[in-house]
Structure formats: C-alpha cells, structure tokens
Amino acid sequence: MKPELRVLVVEDEASTRQEMTSLLGDMPEVSEVLVASNGATAVRLLGTTSIDAAFLDILMPGLDGMDVARVLSVMSEPPSIVFVTASEAHAVEAFGIGAVDYLLKPIRPERLAEAVGRIAQLRSDPSDRSSPAEDLHVVQIDTGRRTVFVKRDDVQFVEAQGDYVRLHTADGTHLIRLSLSYLEEVWAAAGFVRVHRGFLVAIPWVRDLRVTSSSGLVAGTPAGDVPVSRRHGRHLRAQLLEAAKRDQLGRSASGRASGTAKEQS
Predict the structure, then answer these.
(1) pLDDT level of residue 129 (50, 70, 90 thresholds)
(2) Is pLDDT at 1 greater than 50 in this prediction?
(3) C-alpha angle with apex 91: 20 to 161, nearest 5 degrees?
(4) Are 105 and 126 part of one and the same domain?
(5) Do residues 129 and 146 both lie within one domain?
(6) CA–CA separation, 3 vs 29, rounded Å?
C-alpha cells in the first residue's frame, strides 16, 4: 500500500501553483496539498504543521526556493524536496542540498507523477536514497512518440545547444534539456572533461589530438571531431596522458597475472 503524502507547493506564479495543486490532488499517493505563494509564508506554515514533501519554485522574491530548502534540511524529520524551475542552472546545487528531483517548467504531468512516485518509494523505504544524479548512468529522452535510453558510457562527446545539450554516440545524436555544466559535474567521475565553452569529451573515446586548418586543435573521436580551446588544451593533454598510463599499468598487471597462471599450470 502506497503512503498517503501531505505535500506543500511553494510557487509565486498563480497559474503554475493552481496547475500543480490540481495535478497533485488527483494523484492516489497524495492525501493533502498545502500551498504557499512565497518562501516566507512557507516557512511560517512549516512551523505549525508537518509535511512529507515540498515542491519549491527556485526563483521567488524574498526567500527563494533554495532558502526554504535550507530551512527544511535542518528539521529533525525533513520532508522530501523537489525543485520546480524554468532553468537547469541550479541543478547541481539542488542535488547538493539533497533534492530528490528537479522539474522544469512547463510542468509535464508524467514528470510530476514520476517525482511523486520517487517520494512515495523513499517514504516507504528510507534506505533507498538514490538521486537523479546517480541515475544518469542511463539518460532517458522522451521524444514525444517514443522514449530513448542512452547509456552514459556510449556518449563520446556532449555539445551545448542553447537550453539543451546534444549527446553524440556511435549510433547518432540525441537532444535533451539539461545544462552542460550539470553534466560536467555529474559525469566527471566517468572521464568527461570540458574542452571548450560548448563541449565535453569522454576521455576513453579520444583517439587523437591534431591541429586542423579550419578548427584549430581538435580531439578526434569515432563520433566526430571535438574543438578544443587553447585554455583547455593543456588540461586535456594531461588527462589523456594519465589515462594512457593507467591503461598501460592495467595491461602490465594483466600480463603478469596471465604469466603467473601459466607457470602454475
């Protein structure tokens, strides 16, 4: 049986506040929806009642969503936090605060339902604290007619395109609404490095560095060439050299292990 959630919507735009209240009120997991039109009202309300989840608009006059989230984070039993905003610019900070999800306006009912489902799972099983950032080993892209799942390890480089990024793989490209800086943060451990103001490249996929007459220094990958700015060139070379050393050490260790096994046999 799914838990019945008491949720708080903090949103200064009346139309968005009404839309979210209506959508949440129709969900079977939600028992009650409280509303606040600004951060100060939300904080006063939190002093008189308890909630299971808070949907916070980030950009509000006075106390913004981040301010309210910091108040919630010091409570003895903090509610789950979902940020709602028109921009991905605060995504890294949001997940650093401990948000369970990050919804972009205009709100899609299916994404809102997904966030509520995640909260319901957390409330029923508190040991499951995985975050969306950890889920980005696989990127889910909704094209309208179908859903595409792109493995992070198949992405060879990432290109910024306005409010979106384009993921380049051997099988083609995929456009998704995320910020380049966010992917740079959450994919750094997988070897993605900034090589240009508008590009990230996956170190394991780089085959060579060369200078071209049209683009200057580029990093060659099977999916195409990636421009490398002068300020990022030295760092990229160092990363490639370090990766090559690790690869060589790995092969040497594997060879020694293989030789030992043969001797023992």
Answers:
(1) very low
(2) no
(3) 100
(4) yes
(5) no
(6) 6
Main-chain phi, psi angles of 252, to 5 degrees: -65, -45
Q: Do 107 and 96 belong to one domain?
A: yes
Kindly state whether residue 97 falls inside one of the protein's structural domains.
yes
List the beta bridge partners of residue 167.
158, 174
The amino acid present at 175, given as its one-letter code, is L
- Residue 244, SS3 per DSSP: helix
Which residues form the domain of 30?
A: 5-134
DSSP, residue by residue, 204-232: GG--EEEEETTTEEEEEETTEEEE--HHH
- For a pLDDT cut of 70, what percent of the chain falls above it? 81
Domain end residue (candidates: 134, 158, 188): 134
3-state secondary structure of 165: strand
Q: What percent of the chain has pLDDT over 90?
A: 48
Quick count: other Cβ atoms within 10 Å of Cβ 31?
Answer: 13
